[in-house]
Structure formats: structure tokens, C-alpha cells
Amino acid sequence: MKLQEYVISKMCHSKEAAVWGLTKLNPSHFTGQGRTYYSIIKSLYKLYGSVDLHTFVSQSSAQRIKESNANEIYQYAQGQTDEWRNVFQEFKQDSIKRNIRKDLQDLLTVSNNGYDVSEIASKTTSKAVNWISDTEKRYYTGEEIDNLNEEEGEPITTGFQLYDDHIYKHGGNLKGQMKGVICREKHGKTRSECWEVAQNIRQGYKVLYITLEGRKQDITGNLKQILQSDWNQYRNNFLGVDGTVDIEEIESVILEAVLVEHVDKVVIDYIQLAVAPGNSENERINAATERLRHLMVKYNFHLTLLSQARKESTYTTVPKDSQGNKLVPDGWKHVPGVNDAYGSNALIKAATIIIVGFRPNLYEENIEHSPLGTKVINPEKGKDSVHSFYMQIARTRYKPEYLHQWWRFIDSDSGLQNPKFI
């Protein structure tokens, strides 16, 4: 059997086969005149919803294909009642293998032309994605959506009730969703996320952690402190990357990890260090965020973007009491808001949930009268305050049941010492 001829002919006679071919195949799967026939079938279904012999032959003739050839291929599978899906799958597999052989030849040429190893690796990953990713149809019926694999929208859990049943009660930790974490410099964004990642990998999820500011050994050091004796048991669920800041390289790394290692969650630490096109820092970070969001939705993984808030302006008004006494020392950094990070416009649009973090440091005594101070001051007047930081949901796309409620972290091996809202 001539596979290409069979596929083209079957698409002409069976609407079901045509839908399969037009959604799961593309012109690159065909060779020679097969590409022209495929394009003709696509245009005819778009215009008329079917392919008749006369129109198919005339359209082929207009593309300088002999009428006898077009007539022959149209009738090749006419009247055959065998299981066409198996033939279509075989044709697709053969086509992919053919394209792989061609790509390997191209990569050999590239390597012989003196390209840098990193460039060759990037090109290889890009081509490999095309080899193993199927072209699925772009719409689904309600019934098909209900029957989607459970992994679509699967929550990435921690095993802690505060997180799984409260903070993420209405989303924010699902595959296909983005979480944003905004903190000022050295206010706990990496530490808090490492704690959460440690719980994720303990639950059996695979996590890719891309650190743009530190070393992967710094991240595993945090995870070891948190997991302690459990680290050896769960460490293969963790994938760490450092030294990569270009957005195209980051995309390439994520694609490889998701498609090859079946990663469930990706963490970027932190997004302001990503290098992307743009005329300003805001444009650059917004562009990087948008590109990662599209990748997340297309390949169905959870994405956490850590984000560093801008430094407090020296002209920021210091809050005072009714007698004019300063409630905070000069230079105190206020709790950041969702707009206090470069690239926050794209983050606000893309993220299902945005969490802000704040470390009072030695200033707890000075904020006793502030809204935060009434929440976090402990009876010992901040004796361990240098080790504490606090987090809250600052924005959520869904029901704001726990909006602006604080929870407390302790910088210790246990991480979340008091797993409830304060």
C-alpha cells in the first residue's frame, strides 16, 4: 500500500478521516505533490465541507498536476472499508522518522560549520520538540472536555492543609495556571518557594527550578535543610538549572524537561533577571512573562514566577502617629503591592494567584500600631523577628475567600512552623 496516496484519497472520501488529517497532520508530513494535494483538500473542506472529484481534479490541474494523476490518487482508497486510523498513524510515524533523518543531517552540517555547542544544543531541542509533539485539534466539545485526562488542571499539592485547602482552595496551584510571588530583596521569596517545592517533590511531583540569580547548589541546599533525611528519597523528583537567563534558552530548557522528564511544575527565580526583547525593563519582563504563560498553557504544567519588588523610594512618606512620631525607622521597607515589580502588568493578567512576602527584620517594635503590626507582633516582642517573614494573598482571580490574610514563616529547617493563618 502506498501510504501517502491512501491518506490523501481517504481524506477526500471520509469527513472523519479528513478531520483527523487536517488536525493531526500538516504539510511537512507529505512529500512532493502530496503537499499540494493536502492544501487543496484543506481549502475545499473550508469552502464546501467536502471534496468532489471534478473540483479536486480541476484544482490540481491549476497547480500544474496532470489530471490523470489527480484522478488516480482521488480514487486510490475509494470504497475501501478497512480501519483507516491505523494507516494514518503509520503514515504519520513514517513521516516523522523521515523528518528526523533530515534534521539530523542538517544538525551535522551545522556542527561542521563551527557553530557553538550551546547553539547546536538549542537547535537540537527545538527540532526534537517538533518530532515528539502531536498536532491536536484546537477545540473540544463539552463532553470531550469532561473526559480529558485528569492531569489537565491537576493540583500540585503540598500535603499541608493551610496550602492545599485554604491558600489554593480556589486555584493557583493547578497545571495550566500561574502563581506569582512578589518580595523585596532578601525578604524570603526563594526560601519560601523552596519550602513549597520540597513539599511538592515529597508528594511525588516533578519540579524544574530555574534559578537566574544563584546556583542550583544553593537551591538543593535549601531543600536538604527542609527535607533532611528524606532528601535522598525524593531528590530525583527535583531538576535544577542555573546560568541560563535568555528567554529562548529558558523556553528550550522547559520544553525539554516537560516533554522528556514529564515535569509537573516550573519555578523561575526570579523573572526580572530574564533577558527578553523590549525597549524598557517593563517591556522586557512583560514579554518574558507572556511567552512563559503561552508555554505553560500549551504544555500543561504549573508555573511559579518569583518576582523582586522595586526598592522603596527615598521620598516615600514615613507613617506617623497623631503626635507626629515616626511609626517606622528611616529606610524601612513597606509591604510590597502587586504593582511594585517590573513586569507586573503581564503578571497581573496571567497569574491566577499573586502572593506577597515581607520580612519585618528588627523593626517589629516600630510597627506595633500599623495594620500589619497588630497581626504579627508576638508576645515576646519580636525576639525571633530577625528569622521571621510573612506572606499573604494579594490578588486572586477567583473567590477571594482568604485575600489579605497573613501566614508566618520561620527561617528554620521546619520552614512553616505554624501552618495556619494568623
Describe this structure in words.
- There is one protein chain.
- The chain has helices at residues 3-13, 15-24, 33-48, 53-62, 67-74, 84-112, 117-132, 142-146, 161-167, 189-202, 216-227, 231-234, 247-260, 281-299, 344-350, 373-376; strands at 178-183, 207-211, 238-242, 265-269, 302-308, 353-358, 388-396, 406-410.
- The protein is built from 16 helices and 8 strands.
- It has 2 domains: 3-132, DNAb Helicase, Chain A (Orthogonal Bundle), CATH 1.10.860; 161-410, Rossmann fold (3-Layer(aba) Sandwich).
- It has an 8-stranded mixed beta sheet, sandwiched between helices.
- Helices cover 44% and strands 11% of the residues.
- The chain is elongated.
- By secondary structure, the protein is an alpha/beta fold.
- The protein starts with a helix and ends in a 12-residue tail after the last strand.
* CATH fold type of the largest domain: Rossmann fold
Order of helices and strands: HHHHHHHHHEHEHHEHEHEHEHEE
Widest sheet: strand order? 3-2-4-5-1-6-7-8
- Which CATH architecture of the largest domain? 3-Layer(aba) Sandwich
Task: Tell me the count of domains.
Answer: 2
Structural class comes to: alpha/beta
Q: Mind describing the biggest β-sheet?
A: 8 strands, mixed
Q: Provide the helix percentage.
A: 40-55%
CATH class of the largest domain: Alpha Beta
Question: What is the alpha-carbon Rg in Å?
Answer: 28 Å
Unreliable sequence segments: 362-386
Number of helices: 16
* Percent of sequence in beta strands: 5-15%
Q: How many beta strands in the DSSP annotation?
A: 8
CATH superfamily of the largest domain: P-loop containing nucleotide triphosphate hydrolases
Q: Identify the overall geometry.
A: elongated
The average pLDDT score comes to 81
Query: End-to-end distance, in Å?
Result: 71 Å
